[in-house]
Amino acid sequence: MAEQLAIGGLTKSFGGLVALDAIDLRIARGELVGLIGPNGSGKTTLLNIVSGYYAANDGQVRYEGRAILGWAPHQLARIGIGRSFQVTKVFRRLTLLENMLVSGLADWRESRAAATDRAMAILDDFKLTHLAHEPAANLSGGQAKLLEFARIMMLSPKLILLDEPFGGVHPELKSFMYDKVRAWNADNVTVILISHDMGSIFGLCRRVVTLSYGNIICDGTPEETRADKAVLEAYLGDQHAA
Amino acid sequence: MIRRNSFKAAGAACLLLFFLGLPLLGLTDYWIYTLTIGFYYALLAASWSLLVGYVGRISFAQAAMSGLGGYVSALSVIHFNLPVAGGLLLGILLAGLIGFAIGLLTLRLHGAYLGLTTIAFGEILRIAITAEHGVTEGSRGLQAPALIPGGTQLDYYYLFLAITVFSLLLMWLILRSRIGLFFQSIREDEDGAASLGVDVTLWKALAFACSSAFAGLAGGLYAHFVQLITPSMMSLQEMGFVLAMAVVGGFHNVLYAALGGVMLQSLLEALRAFGEWRLVIFGLLAILMLRFAPNGLFGMLADTLRKKGKSHG
Amino acid sequence: MSLLAISEQAINGLIVSTFYALTALGLAIIFGVLRIVNFAHGELYMLGGYAYYLAVTALGVPPVLGVVIAACALMAIGALIEGLLIRPVHQGKVDRPEEYAIMVTFALSILLLNLANSVFGPWPQRPAPLFRGRVEIGELIISGDRLAAAGTAVLLISVVLLALRFTWAGRAVRAVSQNRQAAEIYGISVARVGMIAFGVGAALAGLAGALIGPVFNVTPPMGVVPVIKAYIIVVLGGLGSIPGAVVGALILGQVESFATILIPDPSRALAYKDAYGLIVLILVLLIRPQGLFGTRERRA
Fold first, then answer.
1. What's the Cα-to-Cα distance from C296 to each of B56, C288, C290, rounded to whole Å?
2. What is the ipTM metric for this complex?
3. In this structure, which of B23, B78, B308, C245 has its CB flanked by the most CB atoms within 10 Å?
């Protein structure tokens, strides 16, 4: 598999707090990687840097060979990096279709008609067609998460970053979302998944990267991770502190 | 959906017919003049609502941009011998350019900080124009050449109506295109919009430019209509007036805001007897609208009609 | 410039600073607790001036009592405004709270200004000052009323700063300013603190207006320029930093006094006086939005 994302020596600090400490990570195209770690370990920070929302203090990130540190989020979206957010960022006063169209029409090459057709097809796939003309504010929490997934699909991304997508989602919807993630992956789309929900991590991912205090302390299969001493200490230590 | 659109089109057509026919109902010159000024405010209120209602970027510099357009137009006609149309164009361009610059500078500002900064920019413009009275005549007032030499009140009325309608049409075209979607996505959630490929920086700046350009147009028209302008047209009191008009009309929709402009200007004249109390009433109306009917009067009306339409199938 | 002239400028700057500081302090408290910029602050300042004027001129009350009455009146008005217009924001009754708060206080400022115009008329009033006469320090002559007003302002500022530091109410105000939710969890009634904050903020603005009235006249638009100065100060000092407001006031007072010298043509120099502060405001917001002492708020 070709290497898609190469992170080298990535460092990020907020004032005196070091969130990421010279992280090295390589991810190949088509991987389904889980990113776990106790609160404050740097998971979301890593995602935010790769998707262009944070600047880094040091290091580099290469995506498909291009150095992308310093690129704006919208530029990264255009070259195929999509992401979801821990707290959903759907456009509440716009309809579901309009939410989708923002994604599709940001590429000026596509006509509104073509984008609308694509959008409706995706909404159909997500069983949200009946709500296409409803404002997104009327969606339940789980449906909003689905909409975020659907919007990402409009980008036809090659790398998807998911930040706690299953938080507060009820089991039936969750398994629907699992299927979607697997379907993406089957299509050779790389997925990096942050989740505190170990069921989703072990159920979906073939590789798990564990962060603690800004360092990668484990990088292996779910089974290896589960047995790793450092990982247990990171989590159990956290429990002791709590 | 199609029925709703044709309903909206019919409504707009009715309004147009109404304003076209109004002078023929035997209105005095005074009222025709008042309505013409009303169209100035309609344009100003609509341009403000474009920025605040659709893009969600609060600005208190609208009146200042209008004044900028007015002074640039008047001065360029006087000193560079441009035809009035050329002056207007220059006013639009300069207002748009400065609007773009302010939009870029204020990228990272939001809410009250953004509002404060726009107040600062607007006030600096007003102070500069007042201070350079050698060029602008300052508070004594600058005389601007007439838009239509020898034109009657009726001439001006229809010209202003035409330009206002044309501008609203232009705004509508922009807002229903993908640009309108980008604007609204920025209002709803900037980070989310960026994650979907929207160049938030560019569109924020362009929105400011667009809004300011229309304000500059309004100011230029005003200058060559009343033919005497002072820096008071750029004051925060004027800005408050525009805000009240857009809020009362409905600042999430350019047409409602425009109607709010005409309505409040007419009300201002109709309630002449109340003197300064008129502005107290407008302030109160604006507060009540903001608190209880944020969609404005015409927004409420439209919502009511829509509900009735739904219940009748 | 002679030493005497510089001293005069500096003292003038200091005196003006105290009034700015008092107004800014009120704004800072309101922002700190309620997280809204009160665009009607200038009109509260103006109403304080009129309250003092009415108390002293119409009711014939001694000036010191007039100042007290102005403070009480404005505290009541502030609490009323907070309850009617601002509290709904924190109770979730308003659709778009940030937009609403900005626009509603702006509309309120228009209402109050024109209300004053209608009720009192546009003519300037000059109520009796706290202290008449002149004070001479060597060759320096300072008018007594200005000095008395400034002195009172400094006293009030000190009282407020001490109260914020040492009284329970002051600590509650600081707690809510720093972390509203945490304060609530610890049992502080944030609604009550909000009301107190707006009331105190309004009272401080009213006090500044009452003190300035005898010095510079009481007119309906008297608050329009000072409130912008207050914004500049609060932003310069750092939104959320109350001592920062005092420092900001000192800086602004001096900047205005001396920047006037920069433009050689005296009539234009004076005309641009108000613009210097505005430029400072823009520069601060663009370069260092947290001001001199404020805390930077993290984004995503």
1. 23, 9, 5
2. 0.90
3. C245
